[in-house]
């Protein structure tokens, strides 16, 4: 074990001794145990953190890391789904390097589409717009809107969508369909 992990372990144990109901110390101690290959102690502390604070996304993700390392990918995905239910974002999940293995699974894609289809389609609309692939851009924009994308104001200023907004007639038809109230205000 490296000196830094030993120092961290000592600090988190002291914190828990001072207040055994502090979930952050439990989560971080669990991660120290995970990083130092002590899975049983990692599990114990991560589960205790979730018990103390049932909405603790970080501890749920910690359990997903642990279960992935143990080859229990289905169980890991269950913790990912719980974390999404408690507020984990698509950006957070996509950038998390400890989730790389899970992101290769077909079940990951199903889970992401279940909870984030509007964002995924919006990002694809942006990508195709930037490439000048307008038909695809409009197709994915409509998919994002039909799957729940609601940020009208952002769409009006998002520089990724400039090429789509430049086709005013087509853009306005879509805005009128999905945002009739905002579109009326814009015409005033």
Write a structural description:
- There is one protein chain.
- By secondary structure, this protein is mostly helical.
- 78% of the residues lie in helices and 0% in strands.
- The protein has 13 helices and no strands.
- The chain has helices at residues 3-18, 23-35, 39-52, 57-69, 73-85, 90-95, 100-103, 106-130, 134-146, 152-157, 162-165, 168-178, 180-187.
- Helix 2 (23-35) runs antiparallel to helix 3 (39-52) and helix 2 (23-35) runs parallel beside helix 4.
- The longest helix has 25 residues, at 106-130.
- The model has no long low-confidence stretch (mean pLDDT 93).
Our measurement of the CA-to-CA distance between the termini, rounded to an integer number of angstroms, reads 67 Å
The chain-level mean pLDDT equals 93
Strand content is: under 5%
Spans of at least 5 consecutive residues with low confidence: none
Order of helices and strands: HHHHHHHHHHHHH
Estimated structural class: mainly alpha
Largest sheet: none
| Helix fraction by DSSP (H/I, runs of at least 4) | over 70%
Helices, by number, come to: 13
For the secondary structure, the number of strands is: 0
Please state the overall shape, judged from the principal axes of the Cα atoms: elongated
Rg is: 22 Å
């Amino acid at each position: 074990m490296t000196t830094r992990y030993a120092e961290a372990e000592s600090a988190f144990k002291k914190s828990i001794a001072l207040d055994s109901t502090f979930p952050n110390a439990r989560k971080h101690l669990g991660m120290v145990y995970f990083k130092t290959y002590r899975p049983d102690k990692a599990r114990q502390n991560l589960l205790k953190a979730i018990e103390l604070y049932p909405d603790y996304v970080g501890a749920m993700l910690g359990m997903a890391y642990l279960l992935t390392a143990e080859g229990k990918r289905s169980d890991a995905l269950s913790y990912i789904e719980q974390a999404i239910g408690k507020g984990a974002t698509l950006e957070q999940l996509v950038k998390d390097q400890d989730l790389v293995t899970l992101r290769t699974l077909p079940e990951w894609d199903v889970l992401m589409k279940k909870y984030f289809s509007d964002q995924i389609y919006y990002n694809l609309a942006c990508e195709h717009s930037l490439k000048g692939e307008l038909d695809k851009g409009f197709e994915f924009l409509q998919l994002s809107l039909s799957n729940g994308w609601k940020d009208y104001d952002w769409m009006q200023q998002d520089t990724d969508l400039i090429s789509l907004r430049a086709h005013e007639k087509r853009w306005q038809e879509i805005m009128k369909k999905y945002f009739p109230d905002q579109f009326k205000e814009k015409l005033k």
